[in-house]
């Protein structure tokens, strides 16, 4: 119909992180996710701001985009404290994001204060599977007894269940030892989700000035536990595990690309 105004659909917004309003937030020379890289901008709402870009359509977790996301957070982190979003968080539009940031203003500022000059270090513990099973078979009394008297299918099933339970006990013990050894150096720690092949997955929040001490202590633990057990450290990282943003309307990008 002549004279009718066409409505403009709101644009989805890709969210990289949240910072205090006084964060320098220098984005010079940086590009965001997408091909070509999306232009970055700061969306300020009172005492906090979000670093965002337009959300590319059909965004997938391609290596280039994951690296671009991480690069933005690393750059912001060198300028000040940032609350990092995990890859793929998309807000419906700028207005909804402004509303959510305003509603969580005080909570975000408290988290920013808590994370200042701190980083996340993730520690995974890997065990030699054959050595672990051999150790369980030799040292666990229930497993030993069942191995000696396994004559039918039911007893074989019981043996398998006993071995699995003994391995879980051993992994819990390793986790307790890891936390006892590294926890006092950290401000906080959280158990991560189960990772294939890893007996333990823990993330530690560490003061920047104690990061070297943390790494050295982890090396000592690794050496003390012997060649059948390996520790793998990742970090310092943006403190993803210690940031909770329940009202940021997450719409995670799915899928993986080359």
UniProtKB/TrEMBL annotation:
The keyword Amino-acid biosynthesis does not apply. The keyword Repeat does not apply. It is found in: Gas vesicle. InterPro entries: GvpL/GvpF. GO terms for biological process: gas vesicle organization. GO terms for cellular component: gas vesicle. Keywords: Gas vesicle. Belongs to the gas vesicle GvpF/GvpL family. This is Gas vesicle synthesis protein GvpL/GvpF. It comes from Actinopolymorpha rutila.
């Amino acid at each position: 119909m002549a004279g009718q105004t066409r409505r403009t659909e709101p644009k989805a917004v890709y969210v990289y992180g949240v910072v205090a309003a006084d964060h320098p937030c220098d984005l010079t020379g940086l590009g965001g996710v997408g091909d070509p890289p999306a232009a970055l901008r700061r969306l300020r709402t009172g005492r906090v701001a979000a670093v965002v870009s337009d959300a590319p359509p059909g965004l997938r977790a391609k290596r280039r985009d994951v690296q671009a996301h991480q690069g933005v957070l690393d750059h912001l982190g060198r300028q000040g404290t940032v609350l990092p979003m995990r890859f793929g968080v998309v807000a419906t539009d700028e207005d909804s994001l402004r509303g959510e940031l305003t509603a969580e203003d005080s909570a975000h500022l408290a988290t920013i204060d808590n994370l200042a000059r701190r980083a996340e270090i993730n520690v995974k513990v890997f065990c030699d599977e054959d050595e672990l099973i051999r150790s369980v078979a030799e040292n666990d009394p229930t497993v030993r007894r069942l191995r000696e008297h396994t004559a039918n299918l039911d007893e074989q099933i019981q043996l398998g269940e006993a071995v699995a339970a003994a391995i879980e006990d051993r992994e819990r013990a390793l986790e307790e030892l890891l936390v006892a050894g590294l926890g006092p150096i950290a401000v906080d720690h959280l158990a991560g989700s189960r990772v294939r092949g890893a007996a333990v997955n823990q993330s530690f929040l560490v003061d920047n000035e104690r990061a070297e001490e943390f790494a050295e202590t982890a090396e000592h633990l690794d050496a003390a536990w012997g060649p059948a057990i390996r520790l793998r450290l990742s970090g310092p990282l943006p403190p993803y595990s210690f940031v909770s943003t329940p009202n940021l309307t997450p719409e995670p990008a799915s899928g993986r690309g080359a």
